[in-house]
Hints:
By secondary structure, the chain is an alpha+beta fold. Helix content is about 25%, strand content about 30%. The chain has helices at about 1-10, 55-75, 130-135, 140-155, 160-170, and strands at about 15-20, 40-50, 80, 85, 90-100, 105-110, 175-180, 180-190, 195-200, 200-205, 210.
Amino acid sequence: MKDAAALAARGEPHGTAVVAEYQTAGIGRHGRTWHSEAGGGLYVSIILRLPAAAPALTMALGLAVQQAVDDLAGVASDLRWPNDVMLNNRKVAGILVQSAEGGALIAGIGVNVNQSNFPEELKDIATSLRIETGVEHSKDALLDRIIAESLRHAAIDKAEILRRFEARSSYVRGKAVEVDGLKGVTAGLDGEGFLLLQTDSGLRTIMSGGVRG
């Protein structure tokens, strides 16, 4: 994402993409590390020059990656609010949106494509398209589709994105989850795309945090 941010500061246009074969310092939300096996994953950062910001944009990109993954790999993935694409309750892709100079946004997208295994501490929470389908997949074809879908979804009206996300995610409504120690049952999204959580003490609005459930 640093290379993409430097290009954005230089004035590179909306839709410019930077692709890495592997990452030496991959990151996720809240500074978490992202396991990056050389040759196994797809790592792309896209410069976006849009008025929209997270969480709606993050969810738009989640829908884009889900569409690309499902169509090209022949799977039926799930979306975990706000930025994870899941297969069999394990993470196969993630999205991170950061601001850059000049009003640009950088969408960092990581997809576990052809990894055959993960470190012991990640085996229960991460997976790849190869693990789930038993075959290798073309990263080039997936890259092209992800970029196209990302630019298309990023331009969709926010209300429509929230409607689509709720329709495509089992995590948004009626699911028992825990968010940074707070337990409850998800109750949909508010008008800005924040997660509503029904807890024992009442309805809470979750603006950030890692959803687990």
